[in-house]
Write a structure and sequence with these properties.
Blueprint: H1 5-12, H2 16-23, H3 34-47, H4 53-59, E1 65-72, H5 87-101, E2 105-112, H6 120-123, E3 129-133, H7 138-146, E4 151-154, E5 164-167, H8 169-182, E6 188-191, H9 200-215, E7 221-223, H10 226-230, H11 235-245, E8 253-256, H12 259-271, E9 281-287, E10 299-302, H13 305-322, E11 329-331, E12 334-336
Parallel strand pairs: 1-2, 1-3, 3-4, 4-5, 5-11, 6-7, 6-8, 8-9, 9-10
Antiparallel strand pairs: 10-12
């Protein structure tokens, strides 16, 4: 009996699409490990596999659908952060608009980071490609990779070896330091998490801050605590600010990440009678675009998350059309003058 592509896939222990990519010399085959390619090639030889003309046409069939998998905390239900102006909402809106312009459908699911379950639309090959937002655990990542579909990540660790779109965190922090230094600030502290389990972007920001301060012959001052960033009790935040103000060389500016943290710091400073920006400037390394009715603008690097989602989807669609591997990109925002940044008093 003549061997089929499924027979080859079964013999090699890989997905049908993986066999197709290796056999046809598809650019995506370069993303597979040498061992995977060797197994497929060996199975093809052993089974004397030769695809039929109808089979070739089936392999090239386009579903005109891409998937989006949102990696989120294991305790979350539904889709995280789906509020106007949030990272997820703006990103998905950008992806959806690119799909609409290209006449592609969009399938979306959530993957808890501690789950071993892989989205069915990947395993069943019911999408042409997929965008994964944030991190997947190692087991799920390898299963997704073996599915053989074009894959692009957003805001994921570049060390994982999967092409993706990432915010240029180092540039954002360096830009904030440049602006503050030009305004006369020399006591500049960084608020952020530390530890081995923090997101890669947190490590990038902290390293950029430390290196940037030392390059300017300034002492780095890092304030780190999970409760300072997101805890309901803001007393720890007030204590940290008081300690910064008591330093021999007092801190006059803070650099940190995210609109939410910025507003928490601003509230704490107001309660303490510390004027912003008169006595303390606040520069944020990642800001969402302001709402139309927002007047008290934060100062910092604004990231157009909608445009990032739109560009990521267009890159995946271009890779599908040209039958090449998706290409990642570092994305930079733009500095936004706001009411929280001023020359040192």
């Amino acid at each position: 009996m003549t061997a089929t592509i499924r027979d080859v896939a079964r013999r090699a222990g890989v997905a049908v699409s993986t066999v197709s990519h290796v056999f046809n010399g598809h650019p995506l085959a370069d993303l597979f490990t040498a061992e995977t390619r060797r197994k497929v090639e060996a199975a093809i030889r052993e089974l004397h596999y030769h695809p039929s003309a109808s089979g070739r046409n089936l392999v090239k069939r386009r579903l005109e659908t891409i998937g989006v998998a949102l990696a989120s905390g294991g305790e979350e239900t539904g889709f995280p952060g789906m509020t106007r102006g949030s990272f997820y909402a703006d990103l998905l809106d950008g992806i959806e608009s690119a799909c609409f312009e290209s006449n592609y459908l969009l399938m979306m699911t959530r993957i808890p980071v501690d789950s071993q379950k892989v989205p069915q639309f990947l395993l069943s090959q019911s999408v042409d490609g997929c965008i994964v937002v944030h991190e997947l655990n190692r087991e799920t990542r390898e299963t997704v990779r073996r599915a053989g579909l074009p894959l692009l990540t957003v805001n994921a660790n570049p060390e994982r070896g999967i092409p993706g779109f990432r915010l240029d965190e180092r540039w954002s922090v360096e830009t904030a330091l440049d602006r503050l230094y030009a305004l006369g600030h020399r006591g500049i502290a960084h608020i952020g998490r530390t530890g081995d389990d923090v997101h890669y972007s947190t490590r990038d920001r902290r390293m950029a801050y430390t290196q940037g301060m030392r390059a300017r012959r300034l002492e780095p001052v890092v304030v780190s605590s999970a409760s300072l960033m997101s805890g309901p009790d803001e007393s720890a935040l007030e204590e940290a600010v008081q300690a910064l103000r008591r330093r021999k060389a007092p801190v006059t500016a803070l650099v940190f990440y995210g609109d939410g943290t910025a507003r928490r710091v601003q509230r704490a400073l107001n309660r303490m009678g510390i004027a912003v920006p008169g006595q303390m400037s606040l520069a944020v390394a990642q800001l969402m675009p302001p709402h139309a009715d927002e007047t008290d603008l934060l100062g910092g690097v604004e990231q157009d998350i909608h445009s990032i989602g739109h560009a990521a989807a267009l890159e995946l669609l271009a890779a599908l059309t040209k039958e090449r591997a998706p290409r990642g990109r570092l994305v930079r925002g733009r500095w936004r003058d706001g009411a929280t940044v001023a020359p040192v008093a």
